[in-house]
Amino acid sequence: MFHQLKITERFFLSNQTMPFCLINYRFFVKLNNRTLLCPIRHARFSSLTVQSRSTISSEPSMASNPVRVAAAQMTSINDLAANFATCSRLVKEAVAEGAKFVCFPESFSFIADKDGESVNIAEPLDGPIMQQYCSLARESGIWLSLGGFQERGSDDAHLRNTHVIIDDSGSIRSSYSKIHLFDVDVPGGRVYKESSFTEPGKDIVAVDSPAGRLGLSVCYDLRFPELYQQLRFQHEAQILLVPSAFTKITGQAHWEILLRARAIETQCYVIAAAQAGKHNDKRESYGDTLIIDPWGTVVGRLPDRISTGIAVADIDFSLIDSVRAKIPIAKQRKPIEFWKSESL
């Protein structure tokens, strides 16, 4: 006789056995010192060994209780030390508010004043700039999302626009290189050509954290919903991170509506840390840092759209489950093969 489980927790294989059947959830397998995620729709086992998640201290737990997060807003300039001082102050504010995770905007560490400056200061992720932020995370006991770091590219003329996740021990847990580059003639504004000095990324990245499963992106990615569909439905994201430096013109027209759309259509929280205000004579960012829940409601926002500070909100995992259960789009959506049908 098999026992059927319909639960939402993750499991780890251990040394206690029982026969049962698993439906529509996932567990982890330890293999050669690696933890592998095994999502399954339906399987029968003559025996399966189970260990409580709470006993695995080396892995970040997928929290069931609400977790407080913070999203930072700042006006970065072409001064690495000044920007780090601002980030350090905002981390202290987040810790004081009880946040376990704080998200910074694109280009948090540096925004160039002249052409070529960003490439010149670009470093590998193990370089001294990023190591400062690793130390900040460790000393503050908090996870950091650092979106849009100038990572050294494959040659001296290019960098990668890289979103980095650092845990509370100061270790880099994951990184994502921006896929969609900002090559745009902004109506009534200037022409941008990010691809002239930036290499596009190729990989979709999601990573577990104490605040839930994070889907990584950067700024202009926001206009491409298929990335977020992949993060939700193929990579099981619960929170979508969109660190950004939207222009004032495009931000006024599209910022909030795009973010709320991504939250609604994926049933995920969205955390969008934003650059704000004038960085130099040539560049100004829209600001309006937002935290949005899976129903599309803004739950975190600074009172001043361009001020430096943090927005704080609690990630409610029961709300994620409720929204997804009541509007079950994950079960109802069509596979990609459906849209390739010759009859359509």
Question: What is this structure's SSE topology?
Answer:
Blueprint: E1 3-5, E2 11-31, E3 34-51, E4 67-74, H1 80-96, E5 101-104, H2 117-121, H3 128-140, E6 143-152, E7 159-166, E8 172-177, E9 183-185, E10 191-193, E11 206-209, E12 212-216, H4 225-233, E13 239-241, H5 248-266, E14 269-272, E15 274-278, E16 284-286, E17 290-292, E18 298-301, E19 309-315, H6 317-326, H7 329-332, H8 336-339
Parallel strand pairs: 1-2, 4-5, 4-15, 5-6, 12-13, 13-14
Antiparallel strand pairs: 2-3, 4-19, 6-7, 7-8, 9-10, 11-12, 14-17, 15-16, 17-18
Helix pairs in contact: 1-3
Tell me the quaternary state: single chain
How many H/I helical runs? 8
Separation of the first and last Cα atoms: 45 Å
- Biggest β-sheet description: 8 strands, mixed
Uncertain residue segments: 1-37, 39-61
Order of helices and strands: EEEEHEHHEEEEEEEHEHEEEEEEHHH
- What's the count of strands? 19
Global morphology: globular
Mean pLDDT: 86
Radius of gyration: 21 Å
Which class best fits the helix and strand makeup? alpha/beta
Helical residue percent band: 10-25%
Strand content: 35-45%
Please give a structural write-up:
With 344 residues, this protein is α/β, with parallel strands linked by helices. It contains eight helices and 19 strands. The strands form four sheets. Strands 4, 5, 6, 7, 8, 15, 16 and 19 form an eight-stranded mixed sheet that branches. Strands 11-12-13-14-17-18 form a six-stranded mixed sheet, with helices on one face. Strands 1-2-3 form a three-stranded mixed sheet, with no helix packed on it. Helix 1 runs parallel beside helix 3. The N and C termini lie far apart (45 Å). The N terminus is likely disordered. Keywords: Hydrolase.
